[in-house]
Design brief:
The complex is a heterodimer.
Chain A (H helix, E strand, L loop, with lengths): L5 H12 L3 E7 L5 H13 L4 E5 L10 H12 L4 H12 L7 E5 L1 H7 L1 H11 L3 E4 L8 H9 L3 E2 L1 E3 L5 H10 L4 E4 L12 H12 L6 E4 L5 H8 L4 E4 L1 H9 L3 H20 L1
Parallel strand pairs in A: 1-2, 1-9, 2-3, 3-4, 4-5, 6-7, 7-8, 8-9
Helix pairs in contact in A: 2-4, 2-12, 3-11, 4-6, 5-6, 6-7, 10-12, 11-12
Chain B lengths: L17 E2 L2 E5 L5 H14 L3 H15 L5 E3 L1 H7 L3 E6 L9 H15 L3 E6 L3 H13 L2 E7 H6 L1 H9 L3 E5 L6 H14 L4 E3 L10 H9 L1 H14 L5 E5 L4 H7 L9 E9 L10 H4 L1 E5 L1 E6 L24 H8 L4 E6 H15 L5 H15 L6 E6 L7 H7 L5
Parallel strand pairs in B: 4-14, 5-6, 5-8, 6-7, 9-10, 9-14, 10-13
Antiparallel strand pairs in B: 1-2, 2-12, 3-4, 11-12
Helix pairs in contact in B: 2-4, 3-15, 4-5, 4-9, 5-7, 9-11, 10-11, 14-15
The chains are: A alpha/beta, B alpha/beta.
The complex binds pyridoxal-5'-phosphate.
Pyridoxal-5'-phosphate (PLP) binds next to helix 5, helix 11 and helix 15 of chain B.
Organism (chain A): Microbulbifer okhotskensis
Pathway (chain A): Amino-acid biosynthesis; L-tryptophan biosynthesis; L-tryptophan from chorismate: step 5/5
Protein name (chain A): Tryptophan synthase alpha chain
């Protein structure tokens, strides 16, 4: 492995302190492009460890209605992959430590070119990418361009991933592994804690990478329960919904700050 | 037969679902195991004599195959060149080629033991064909349809409901076929344990482009045999409209190794290629990734999928099956366009000269065939895939004519 990057350092630090990671997802440009960077700083100030910045896409197939609308709002406000990279660059002027991951779909990256993307992402201060519709079989090229730039490749494991694939995917994965807690789209509500626990224990046998759990996490207590057997929790839909419902940018920041602080406290209990 | 060194088209896709650089599987991890299962089941059944016999039985006795190969004499006379033969998929049960595929996938669904089927639909023909086989097998059925299409294809919406299906209007994005497909994928991810997704065209993740093609290839196998019977040789040219590309590949595939047979796929030119308001990714798109496969797409500089336009809902789709993308690149099939006006002219012309009311989708193929025939000689033969009947479109055409029906 190459040098540590921000993701590795952050998880090592949390492990040392015996704490769980709080991974927070917002859609870049949702609520106005000029308000995204302040919102990212607010996430950090309220206790987020990792920022997952959603790259808006016209056809976000894995998202539930809440995040779909976030993508639509962001696109209507002029967001694009290039602008997401510019936002991260701006964020880095005042935050050199918090890991930022781009979460999105394959086509905008393909359009930019995988190598160009990896270089531009590294340049902007991005630390890794999770491309929802790029399963292990199709991820080879992007993965190696990312690795050349010391960027991490985050992969999803799900309740339907077979034993054989868990082995294959965890060999390709770096940074951390994102365990999808349920069969469904983002924001769904049928979390099965027992199956999450069993699956995390099973995945542990394959990898030493940190395991973060996402989908269906709504508040401090669900964050705390799902991460009991993992290394962190990912929260998205409740934050995107807060941004969507807010009357203006400062109301959005305030509400997002409250939600994240509550989760931070629950995780640190 | 194919010469040494020539491509043997029957060997594609490869084991991972690629046609050259196109196809593959671009879906979220949750669906991979369901696709693996489907692929394993399909590979074990596709040459199984009992499965093949069951499929052939349903095609003969439920769908009403073989469909005729009809010589359109007056149309030929008007075009003033090659003879125009119509492969009459409009005469199938439910009125389009779509049922060839749903009958096949219904057999797979039954075999899988799943109790619920879902589908996406544009014109509503695939939704009707899915609701039909679901009714016949007693499976519960949900069909996703863009809200804009629900409006312009209302007769089919009601047909689906009569057949017992739930029709869900999709309000996101452009409210057309692509958004219906997104929503169907989301349903499938959520209900993958009990749900079989019947995709309606040769798009989607592997193995769908392959199995939908194979089920529709009955069109080309029959047309090949019928051509030899009726005019003693293979056709000089094949013409079919291309939305996702299932009726076209169904006609073309059994002829791909016959290199002397020319093939034309007709995309929706909408208001003209220059206007940007069309649905012709093979003519004016670039390769990208959508709905589980790599193919030509209509997209902007940022890789966002853009809205398409066509008078026919069934062609109003920004992507196209990956096999067509590959056939374009290697030059085996020529992809052309017919615009809205040309399609409407052909719709009226075929209705008045032959007493056959074609679907607006199929009218695009007829429009191009009329031009092509004029440039060929009277002893040559063109086979046009008349993929569906036009009853569903009379409200659209009436509205264009300013008439209330
Ligand atoms: C009659 C008819 N023809 C053609 C199409 C286009 O689909 P494909 O390109 O998959 O044949 C449709 C789709 O709804 C249709 O109803």
């Amino acid at each position: 492995m190459t040098d540590q990057n921000r993701i590795d350092r952050r998880f090592a630090k949390l492990r040392g302190e015996g704490r769980k990671a709080l991974v927070t997802y917002i859609v870049a440009g949702d609520g106005g492009l000029q308000n995204t960077v302040p919102l990212m700083h607010k996430l950090v100030a309220s206790g987020a460890d990792v920022i997952e910045l959603g790259v808006p896409f016209s056809d976000p197939m894995a998202e539930g209605p809440v995040i779909q609308r976030g993508h639509e709002r962001a696109l209507a406000g002029g967001a694009s992959l290039r602008k997401c990279l510019a936002l991260v660059d701006e964020f880095r002027q005042n935050d050199k430590d918090t890991p930022v991951i781009l979460m999105g779909y394959a086509n905008p990256i393909q359009r930019m070119g995988e190598q160009v993307f990896a270089e531009a992402a590294a340049e902007a201060g991005v630390d890794g990418a999770l491309t929802v519709d790029l399963p292990a079989e199709e991820a080879g090229a992007l993965n190696s361009f990312m690795a050349e730039r010391n960027l991490r490749n985050i992969f999803l494991l799900t309740p339907t991933t077979t034993e054989e694939r868990i082995g294959e995917i965890t060999t390709l994965a770096s940074g951390f592994v994102y365990y999808v807690s349920l069969k469904g789209v983002t924001g769904a509500g049928h979390l099965d804690l027992e199956s999450v626990r069993d699956n995390l224990e099973h995945i542990r046998q394959f990898t030493d990478l940190p395991l973060c759990v996402g989908f269906g996490i709504k508040d401090g207590s669900s964050a705390r329960s799902v991460s009991a057997n993992g290394d962190g929790a990912v929260v998205g839909s409740v934050l995107v919904s807060a941004v969507g419902d807010a009357v203006d940018a400062s109301a959005a920041e305030e509400r997002v700050g409250e939600i994240v602080s509550e989760m931070r406290q629950a995780l640190d209990q | 037969m194919s010469k040494p060194g020539a491509i043997d088209f029957s060997t594609f896709p490869d084991a991972s679902g690629h046609f050259g650089p196109y196809g593959g599987r671009f879906v979220s991890e949750t669906l991979i195991s369901a696709l693996d299962e489907l692929q394993a089941m399909y590979m074990s059944l596709k040459d199984d004599p009992d499965f093949v016999a069951a499929f052939d039985h349903d095609l003969a006795h439920y769908v009403g195959r073989p469909s005729p190969l009809y010589l359109a004499e007056r149309l030929t006379e008007q075009a003033g060149g090659a003879r125009i033969w119509l492969k009459r998929e409009d005469l199938n049960h439910t009125g389009a080629h779509k049922v060839n595929n749903t009958v096949g996938q219904a057999l797979l669904a039954k075999q899988s033991g799943k109790t619920r089927v879902i589908a996406e639909t544009g014109a509503g023909q695939h939704g009707v064909a899915t609701a039909t086989v679901a009714a016949r097998l007693g499976l519960s059925c949900t069909v996703y349809m863009g809200a804009a299409d629900v409006k312009r294809q209302s007769p089919n919406v009601y047909r689906m409901k009569l057949l017992g299906a739930e029709v869900v209007p999709v309000e996101s994005g452009s409210k057309t076929l692509k958004d219906a497909m997104n929503e169907a994928m989301r349903d499938w991810v959520t209900n993958v344990d009990n749900t079989f997704y019947i995709i309606g065209t040769v798009a989607g993740p592997h193995p769908y482009p392959q199995l939908v093609r194979d089920f529709n290839s009955i069109i080309g196998r029959e047309a090949r045999r019928q051509s030899l019977e009726r005019f003693g040789q293979l056709p000089d040219a094949l013409v079919a409209c291309v939305g996702g590309g299932s009726n076209a590949i169904g006609l073309f595939h059994p002829f791909l190794n016959d290199t002397q047979v020319k093939m034309f796929g007709v995309e929706a030119g909408g208001k003209g290629l220059a206007s940007g308001k069309h649905a012709a990714p093979l003519n004016d798109g670039i390769p990208g990734v959508l709905h589980g496969n790599r193919t030509y797409l209509m997209e902007d500089d940022d890789g966002q999928i853009i809205e398409t336009h066509s008078v026919s809902a069934g062609l109003d789709y920004p992507g196209v099956g990956p096999e067509h993308a590959w056939l374009k690149d290697i030059g085996r099939v020529e992809y052309v366009t017919a615009d809205d006006d040309e399609a409407l002219d052909a719709f009226r012309r075929l209705t008045r000269t032959e007493g056959i009311l074609p679907a607006l989708e199929s009218s695009h193929a007829v429009a191009y065939a009329l031009k092509l025939a004029g440039s060929m000689s009277p002893e040559q033969n063109i086979v046009v895939n008349l993929s569906g009947r036009g009853d569903k479109d009379i409200f659209t055409v009436a509205a264009i004519d300013g008439i209330e029906v």
